[in-house]
C-alpha cells in the first residue's frame, strides 16, 4: 500500500493534489487559538496539517500578527459545501459564543 494514504473513519483519504477518480476527500472546519492574545480563528480546509503549518509560519496575512497558535478544535464533514456552511455558522452569533466558552477565549 502507498504510504501516503491515510485512513479516516474507514475511508482512504489521499493527500491534497493526489486525488484519484475514486478518492474520498474529507473537509474540515478548524479552530485556532492564539497563545498571544487568546482569540479564536475559524477556518476550513481539506488538509488540516498543511493549513496549520501555513498559519504557524506566518503565510496567512490575517493571522500573522497573532502567532503562535494551538489547534483547538477540528470538525470533519463530508462535503465542501457542508464545511462552508459550518464555518459561517461558527463565525456568527451564539455558536461563536459557545465556542468561546468551550475553548476559554480571553476576549
Under CATH, the topology can be stated as GIY-YIG endonuclease
What share of the residues lie within helices? 25-40%
Rg over CA atoms, rounded to whole Å, is 15 Å
Q: What's the shape?
A: globular
Number of strands: 5
SSE layout:
Layout: E1 6-8, E2 11-13, E3 27-34, E4 40-45, H1 48-57, E5 69-77, H2 80-91, H3 93-103
Antiparallel strand pairs: 1-2, 3-4, 3-5
Descriptive overview:
This protein has 107 residues and is α+β, with helices and mostly antiparallel strands. The strands form 2 sheets. A 3-stranded antiparallel β-sheet has the order 4-3-5. It has a two-stranded antiparallel sheet with strand order 1-2. It is built from 3 helices and 5 strands; from the N terminus they run E-E-E-E-H-E-H-H. It has one domain (6-103): 3-Layer(aba) Sandwich (GIY-YIG endonuclease).
Descriptive tags:
31% helix, 3 helices, single chain, alpha+beta, globular, 3-stranded antiparallel β-sheet, two-stranded antiparallel sheet, disordered N terminus, 107 residues, GIY-YIG endonuclease
Provide a concise account of the structure shown:
This protein has 107 residues and is α+β, with helices and mostly antiparallel strands. Helices cover 31% and strands 27% of the residues.
Amino acid at each position: 500500500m502507498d504510504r501516503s494514504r491515510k485512513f479516516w473513519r474507514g475511508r482512504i483519504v489521499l493527500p491534497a493534489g493526489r486525488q484519484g477518480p475514486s478518492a474520498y476527500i474529507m473537509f474540515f472546519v478548524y479552530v485556532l487559538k492564539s497563545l498571544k492574545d487568546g482569540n479564536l480563528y475559524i477556518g476550513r480546509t481539506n488538509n488540516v496539517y498543511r493549513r496549520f503549518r501555513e498559519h504557524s509560519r506566518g503565510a496567512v496575512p490575517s493571522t500573522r500578527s497573532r502567532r503562535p497558535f494551538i489547534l483547538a478544535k477540528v470538525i470533519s464533514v463530508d462535503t465542501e459545501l457542508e464545511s462552508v456552511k459550518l464555518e459561517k455558522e461558527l463565525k456568527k452569533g451564539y455558536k461563536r459564543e459557545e465556542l468561546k466558552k468551550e475553548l476559554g477565549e480571553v476576549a
